[in-house]
Amino acid sequence: MKKNIGILTFYPMHGGGIFQYIQSMVDALAADKSNRYIIFADKDDTRFDGYGLEVRKLSPSNRSGVNQAIIFSQLLVGMRQPFFLRDDEKQVYADIDLFLSPATSVYPHVFLKKPFIFTLHDMQEKYYPHAFTRVERFKRVLRNRALTQAAQAVICESNYVKQDIMNFLGAPSDKVAVIQSPPPDFLRSYAAKPENFAAVQRKYALPERYIFYPAQCWFHKNHLKLVEAFNIIANDTDEDVTLILSGSQQDYYPQLMAKIQALNLGHRVKHLGYIDYEDIPYLYKMAKMLVMPTLFESVSIPIYEAFALGVPVCCSNVVALPEQVGDAALIFDPNNAADMADKILQLLRDAPLAAELVIRGKQRVKNFDHADYARKILAVINK
């Protein structure tokens, strides 16, 4: 008998890699006919309208300050009652047998007391507590603990994060499934339109040679150390290359701008802000490389995007990134600006190496199969 499975997609388009993760999960499950999938999305979200799945759109009530206080009060005492849900919300969720929550959210599944599976992407607050306020750390601990205890299963994308879930949250090994997500399906067979390259280049005033880093300005994205590394390249070498940054302007944006100004790099480092999603592939394909200097990442979606689009990758040697890239990227110490600069220069100057990494990256992405990804998720659902 088919289950009604609700996929919760309440996550902003400019919210980082989790947005692409949700897209990949829906891509994979849309072809499965053994269950009935219902997408829950914000009222103005149209990205799943053409998938042939039922899409129920609403404005979640959990976003008000009062309801947030009720939610965390309940989590604190271990209560799971839908006090804050409107009647129309309860009705729209009533026929769901199992929820899939690709983001680490407690709404609405925890309070409806329905079975659910959720994805825990990382526990970086345990490694970089100073990057979070006390309130943020408290909320993350409370939410992660409540979700892990109540969930039928937890999905993560690397063995590193699985160990964290077991160590910090006490989850048994058989409750945590490691399932790496492929990049969104359209990128694996992306056909760029030649006429769009010049249009995108003009739109963002892109230089001829640039290094690309798409990431929101959070502490762990390590923009400041990347700028220090780029300063070495700009001042100690004759490389005519620009650093292009994109992503929403989060907490560390003022510090990033101050760093660029202090190093007098305003003419060599450009922050584009949020990029229209349809333009992203062109920014990748015109770049000399993707650089990923992050201090903490379970799995990096931009790395898979670069692999799929034929762009060489230079990245950190932290957490699960070596597990993710294998021999398909040049890696560096993200805390060492000189090492980062050295590896970037090596990739800029060694064309045969860059070409070889492109081949290896494409092969690594080719090994991903959305059907296989769906089978792994279904195995967790059926279990």
TrEMBL record:
Q: Which domain of life is it from?
A: Bacteria
SUPFAM superfamilies, A to Z:
UDP-Glycosyltransferase/glycogen phosphorylase (SSF53756)
Pfam families per UniProt: Glyco_transf_4, Glycos_transf_1
* Every Glycosyltransferase subfamily 4-like N-terminal domain range: 16-180
MF-aspect GO terms: glycosyltransferase activity
Please report the stretch or stretches of sequence annotated as the Glycosyl transferase family domain.
Answer: 207-363
Its name, as the record gives it, is Glycosyltransferase family 1 protein
